[in-house]
Amino acid sequence: MTDAVKFDTALPAKRESRLKRFFQALALMRESPVGMIGLLLILFWVMMAILAPFLPLYDPNAIMAPFQKIGATAPDGGIFWLGTDHKGRDILSRIIWGAQKVLIWATFATFVAYVVGMLMGVLAGYKGGWADEIVSFIANIFLSFPFIILCIIIVATLGASGWTVVVAVTFASAPQIMRIVRGLVLDLKTRDYIFAAQTRGESPWYIMLVELLPNARGPLIVDACLRLGYTVVAIATLGFLGLGLPPPDPDWGLMLKEAVPLGAFAGHSMYLPAAALASLILGFNLLADGLREISLRD
Amino acid sequence: MIVLAAKRLVAMLLIMLVVSFILFSLFEADKMAVAGKVLGPYSSIEQREIWLSQNGYDEPFLSRYTQWVGGALHGDFGDSLQYKVPVSELLADRLKNTGILALIFFLIMIPLSLTLGVLAGMKEGSWLDRIISIFSVLTTSIPEFVTATFLTGLFVYTWQLLPGTSSMTGGFSWQEMILPVMVLVIYDFGYVTRMTRASMAEVMTSQYIRTAILKGLPYKRVIMRHALRNALIAPFTVIVLQLNWLLSGLVVVEVFFAYKGFGSLLVDAALFGDIYVIEACVMVAVFIAVFSQFISDIGYTLLNPRIRFS
Predict the structure, then answer these.
(1) What is each CA distance from B68 to B71, B85, B303, in whole angstroms?
(2) How many CA atoms within 13 Å lie on the side-chain side of B188?
(3) Of B138, B145, B158, which is closest to A240 when you measure between CB atoms?
(4) CA B54, CA B32: separation in Å to the nearest integer?
């Protein structure tokens, strides 16, 4: 960032080094077995989500034979690898399609929350004064709600859909992201390169978005990882409370809600989605743990 | 200290005012649907409008809001639309139940997590530390309703030891408390344990502990007298701040086990659109959030003289 004039010519070289740095980061992950396990768990579910349309699965919403055990033969001669649920839908297919759904919405919701939170944080931290007071007060309003309670109220008022889940997660997460970014920016804005940019006469928004934010990314990556996990939990919890992504499309939380009362004679239909959910969230937590460990070591 | 308390109080009141106003206006847009829920799905539009005007919804929005604020200041939060009883009565009963659940939870969680955290932090990197750390990450990573699912499967369906509901319809019962408390403890203890462990590990590397060991004090005495007091400052604030975190956890656990507490009341009210109950519950939640933050700040200064005198 030292030479803004030669920005264009410097771009290709920079991109190459980015890629190299990415692989270096991956190599670093090997130093943390805990982080590696987390990464593998996440990659497994991401692969499942990507491959979902190509795998030889039953339609997740097709109603076939109810309460089939694990490995039972389907009416058309196929096999229900993980059995079927109370409505006769293939559980394996529902879990895999559910993974796709929860990963897409969680990533999208976390992304939106990050955009809003980072803009608020960098504005509050860099501008200070009234901007800081106002943004911090708005953030404090939403921080005074317990996370899930805020989500419940928003979704209950706006009606359950993927978009309201995004809105709810943004309202609940953005203030927390704003606090982290604000703290980082308060520290970064006293650096020489910021003074240099100010002296060059760069606009405040250029300084905030091009100079400050990229340099605050380290702690934010660890936080983003944890937050993705929280968002998956939030979506699943809302689903479990009947406020999540609307049926009949598979949603892990809703699958649990429907299966638990029938657990006495169809245990697998309740344990399997629970295990899927637990493994994915464990993955995010372990990866965040590993990343933090590695970043502390440097 | 008094200045800090006054500042926090003013901030809290301001937040409560803004939050209650936002909630009020959110449900204002939705009042036809609320009337529909009170009168049933087959009520006509005219019936709903009559109900709305009978219940004072014709008055201007702002005058109803100020009326509510005035009532709330006297402890009168209006009547629940769903249960047709004063909100304050309903809330007091539910808060008492949640209080009992939270009390039992804290009585088990605090000694358990502090002991495990201290044991793990005493010797960083030992096998005991590894086991405790891994176990606490595992349990904390799994959301409550997943833990609740597994525990219900084992204790209720497979072994048939415990009831799967905690609705307490036949009066208070210890048996019905076990599963909710167990889920909360399993979900929550790991976090406090890790905080205690980190704090203990940091203290154990400090100069004064090395001095105490080198001057020949018994190891037990070094731990009990020198390390513990300093190591417990950080976990204290974490535990108090858990109060706020716990509210979220309680919502899920109470709904899962049909426990008649604050959390399940709030979910029911949110689903029904029972605005006065929601308002009252949220005011309680905001109060707990601000109050626990305040207590943890004060406790922190009391426990740590370096902050107090600077």
Answers:
(1) 5, 16, 41
(2) 31
(3) B145
(4) 13
Name the CA dihedral angle for A168, A174, A175, A176, rounded to a multiple of 10 degrees: 110
Q: Which of A77-91, A122-136, B164-178 has the highest mean pLDDT?
A: A122-136
User: Which helix (H) or strand (E) segment is A79 a member of?
Assistant: strand A79-80
To the nearest whole percent, how much of chain A has pLDDT over 70? 93
Q: Give chain A positions within 8 Å (CB) of B14.
A: 137
Contacts of A281 in chain B (CB under 8 A): 141-143
Chain A CB contacts of B137 under 8 Å are 34, 285-286, 289
User: What is the ipTM score, two decimals?
Assistant: 0.82
Q: Length of chain A, please? A: 298
Chain center to CA of B118 = 25
**Portion of chain A with pLDDT greater than 90, in percent:** 23
The whole-angstrom distance between residue A233's C-alpha and the CA centroid of its chain comes to 9
Residue contact A156–B251, C-beta within 8 A: no
Rounded to a whole number, what is the distance in Å from the CA of B249 to chain A's nearest CA? 8
- Contact predicate B282/A149, CB 8 Å: yes
Write out the DSSP string of A195-256.
HHHHHHT--HHHIIIIIIHHHTHHHHHHHHHHHHHHHHHHHHHHHHTT-SSPSSS--HHHHH
B145 touches chain A (CB under 8 A): yes
Partner B, chain A 221-260, Cβ-Cβ below 8 Å: 229, 233, 236-237, 240-243, 253, 256, 260
Q: Phi/psi zone of residue B13: left (φ > 0), alpha (ψ -120 to 50 degrees), beta?
A: alpha
